[in-house]
Design goal:
The chain is of the alpha+beta class. It is 57% helix and 7% strand. It contains 31 helices and nine strands. The protein has helices at 7-11, 79-92, 104-107, 110-127, 134-155, 162-177, 183-186, 190-194, 197-209, 221-238, 244-257, 267-285, 292-313, 319-330, 340-353, 358-371, 390-416, 418-423, 425-432, 437-440, 447-466, 474-485, 489-492, 496-503, 511-538, 541-544, 548-560, 594-602, 604-612, 627-635, 641-653; strands at 20-21, 24-31, 49-54, 60-61, 566-569, 585-588, 621-626, 657-663, 666-671. The protein has a five-stranded mixed sheet with strand order 6-5-7-9-8, with helices on both faces. Strands 1-2-3-4 form a four-stranded antiparallel sheet. A hairpin with a 5-residue loop joins strand 3 (49-54) and strand 4. Helix 2 (79-92) packs parallel to helix 5 and helix 17 packs across helix 21 (447-466). The longest helix is centred in the last third of the chain and has 28 residues, at 511-538. It is globular. It starts with 6 loop residues before the first helix and ends in a 5-residue tail after the last strand.
């Protein structure tokens, strides 16, 4: 084989007869001991190297093999069960009854951190060993997901996140009403009936399983949604390389960097998985393929992605926009210049927006237009937008450093791996495509987190490439093989270490230090990211976890509240905050303007009584204050615990209010005379 002679040859795959397939083609190159015969299929002893060249939508060769090492046969078997045993011991000996501002981080038993260390180390030495079967890499990734996403489900007796409880309320509404309703019946909550895909599916699942509500299983949703992401991620990464080290390291980095928390019981979790599924199909099955058979296959896959796009569009507002910009970015490459996927997405998206979602969009369009270009809305600080307290600030910085490190590694990988930068250009485009959305809308001050999440699949691939040896083209391999063929018999007798040193053009005296760098520095980086995931993901569990006594308090309130009642609370961070939202009103005074909050602080009972007196009979007006509200107000800089305690004491001492119920998690008061 000779190096490509022209720029066109460098950009085109080298086709090998007998190795073509619908997904690409594979050529096996053997570097024998003597004659450099590319077509030879014979084994030439322990010093032979076998390199697989994978192509299709991308033209990549495997990363160079690691030097031969003597590793005990049971090595990959030991760290995984040891880590899982340590994790199980840690879960059994962790107490979450008194969480502080560090959330789960300070509550975890030390064995948990040791388990993550053992697991990450075992994964690294297993995935980089070419003699280990790929199933071991999968086993370690599954172990990581269990430790990351199942720990909270096992430790907490109730589901996390007020937003998950809100979505449970929407599912309950569909089960209760038996159909969709408009803003005349539901007000602002009608937006969920205009994007009902996820909630309708969950309502059907609740009936099918026979449980009372989605709360019966939504604690395990983060683990389930993370497992679902594995298949599209693997399909995407295998489109660009057959090297399992790069593939599984990228998968690992993706999951430890995905701390944003959109894997909870939400439409976003399903829409994101479908988003990756559409990208996987487009990357693998669309391209510059001709012939009637290829066109028929493309038509079949167009039907498949259309189904997924419809599911995305009817379930979530933001994901269709992210998918559209991602598919448009792929069209910038010659290989994927197929406008059918983005055109299909745009047509379905517009059709839904102009029909079922039109009532919401008509009302929200002015605010959406004003927010275009408001980048400051994504990085706002001040009242209600700045974490306060040592724990909240520390965990916020851990998340920022984790994300920043992965993005910097991705840049380093793209700059360092010239072959990957050229051949896996679609992944670079997918990593950059969500950035314009940052200026399109603040999305409730959450756009920065969504952009980061949609960037991760591409960024993780190049971050993994930064931790692995440089990729070489087949032309470079041919040149290295010719050099070895001209070597003397004495040099060949030195074995695999000498062959490796000459093939990589690395002086032998630097080989040992290079191996040390390539082994321990990437391992430390991988370990740091894995450990940083815990505070980034679970560091705010003090305000995300609602103990059973708080759930019981709120559930009893809504069971007693007559239709037309009003529940007033500091903020919406409590379980069942949207229970019976179609018949009971909600008011959270910390979401008002700051001057009204100051008025409440000056005269809590009097101001709240005036705000709550608008209830018509037979409804009643209730004041609710719980631990979850206090934690959210303190950690987000809204009000201090002392200020909320003073409000509660004022209400308790006022003759206008009567105590309805109280336990260690909070209190419920009713306004006398309101609604009667």
């Amino acid at each position: 084989m000779r190096p490509p002679a022209s720029s066109r040859e460098r950009s085109e795959p080298e086709r090998v007869p007998g190795h073509e397939s619908s997904a690409g083609w594979t050529a096996t190159v053997r570097l024998p001991r003597r004659a450099p015969d590319r077509s030879s299929q014979e084994s030439h002893g322990p010093t032979d190297e076998v390199l697989t060249y994978f192509s299709g939508a991308a033209d990549l060769s495997d990363l160079p093999a690691w030097p031969a090492r003597r590793v005990p046969v049971p090595w990959p078997v030991l760290p995984l069960p040891a880590a899982l045993a340590l994790w199980a011991y840690a879960v059994a000996h962790t107490d979450v009854s008194g969480l502080d501002d560090f959330g789960l981080v300070s509550a975890l038993h030390p064995a948990f951190w040791l388990a993550l260390t053992v697991l990450t180390t075992g994964f690294w030495f297993t995935v980089r060993d070419p003699r280990r079967r790929e199933v071991w890499s999968l086993a370690y990734v599954l172990g990581l997901l269990v430790m990351e996403r199942a720990t909270q489900a096992l430790l907490y007796p109730t589901p996390l996140y007020a937003w998950a409880w809100k979505h449970d309320g929407v599912v309950d509404h569909l089960l209760t009403s038996g159909g969709l309703q408009t803003s005349k019946e539901l007000g602002d909550m009608a937006v969920y009936d205009q994007w009902p895909g996820f909630f309708a599916a969950q309502a059907a699942l609740v009936r099918l399983v026979g449980v009372d509500s989605a709360a019966a299983y939504m604690a395990w949703w983060p683990l389930l949604s993370s497992l679902v992401l594995l298949l599209p991620l693997l399909l995407i990464y295998r489109t660009f390389t057959a090297d399992r080290r790069l593939i599984w390291t990228a998968v690992w980095i993706f999951h430890v960097a995905n701390w944003v928390g959109q894997d909870y019981f939400s439409p976003q979790s399903v829409a994101f998985a479908l988003h990756l599924g559409v990208l996987a199909v487009v990357l693998r099955r669309y391209g510059r393929a001709g012939g009637s058979a290829a066109r028929q296959r493309t038509a079949v896959w167009t039907v498949a992605i259309t189904v997924m796009i419809v599911a995305i569009v009817i379930s979530h507002q933001l994901t269709p926009g992210m998918l559209l910009v991602s598919l448009a970015a792929l069209c910038l490459t010659r290989r994927h210049r197929d406008w059918v996927p983005p055109a299909t997405t745009l047509a379905i998206f517009l059709a839904w927006c102009l029909t079922a979602a039109l009532p919401f969009l008509s009302a929200a369009l002015p605010d959406m237009i004003r927010s275009v270009g408001d980048v400051g809305g994504n990085v706002s600080t001040g009242y209600g937008a700045t974490p306060t307290g040592t724990g909240a600030v520390t965990t916020s910085w851990a998340a920022r450093l984790l994300s920043g490190s992965v993005l910097l590694l991705a840049v380093a990988g793209a700059l360092r791996q010239r072959v990957l930068r050229h051949r896996a250009l679609p992944l670079l485009l997918l990593a950059a495509a969500p950035l314009p959305m940052f200026a399109a809308s603040s999305y409730g001050d959450e756009m920065i987190f969504r952009v980061l999440m949609f960037m991760l699949p591409g960024a993780s691939f190049f971050a993994a490439a930064a931790l692995l040896p440089k990729v070489r083209t087949l032309a470079a391999e041919a040149a290295a093989r010719d050099t070895r063929a001209r070597a003397t018999a004495a040099e060949r007798a030195r074995g695999a270490a000498a062959v490796w040193a000459r093939a990589t053009d690395t002086p032998r005296r630097f080989d040992l230090s290079a191996r040390r760098y390539g082994t321990w520095v990437p391992l430390l980086a991988l370990l740091a990211g894995t450990l940083a995931f815990v505070p980034s993901y679970s560091g705010k569990d003090r305000m995300s976890y609602f103990p059973p006594r708080e759930v019981d308090l709120v559930r009893t309130l809504f069971e007693r509240a007559p239709e037309g009642s009003l529940v007033v609370a500091a903020d919406r961070n409590y379980p069942l905050a949207y229970a019976s939202y179609w018949s009971v009103g909600h008011y959270w005074f910390l979401e008002d303007a700051r001057h009204h909050v100051d008025r409440i602080l000056r005269d809590p009972a009097g101001t709240l009584a005036r705000d709550m007196s608008v209830v018509d009979p037979p409804g009643r007006a209730y004041f609710l204050l719980t631990e979850g509200q206090v934690a959210d107000a303190e950690m987000n800089g809204l009000l201090t615990g002392a200020q909320l305690a003073r409000i509660q004491r004022s209400v308790a001492a006022s003759p206008r209010f009567a105590l309805v119920q109280r336990n260690s998690a909070g209190s419920v008061y009713v306004l006398k005379g309101a609604g009667r």
